[in-house]
Specification:
Blueprint lengths: L1 E6 L2 E4 L4 E9 L6 E7 L6 E6 L6 E3 L7 E6 L4 E6 L8 E8 L8 E2 L3 E6 L1
Parallel strand pairs: 2-11
Antiparallel strand pairs: 1-3, 3-8, 4-5, 4-9, 5-6, 7-8, 9-10, 9-11
Amino acid sequence: QVQLVESGGGLVQAGGSLRISCATSGRTFSSYHMAWFRQAPGKEREFVARITKGGARTDYADSVKGRFTISRDYAKNTMYLQMNSLKPEDTAVYYCAASDAYGTNADYWGQGTQVTVSS
């Protein structure tokens, strides 16, 4: 089992930056891949970024490429999403996810953290 708890969401102006975190517990942190998804009001949940269990590979949605950076800290068992040059369309609930297979649906989900970008 893997437990995921997101934090760090909030309200930020367009063009600003925010870093959200996902604290993990349960299984060994390096034993699973991780990802961020988001869901805006009235829309389906969408993929944002993912990172392999060892951190060597990352992938991003086209909409956030060059603005967002996913990372993981093995000493703190925590994953991060650094979000720069934020746009109002980035407003969503951001979910942390963990999976045994890279690039597939998540096996574990966090409860989400709200990110709101004002224009």
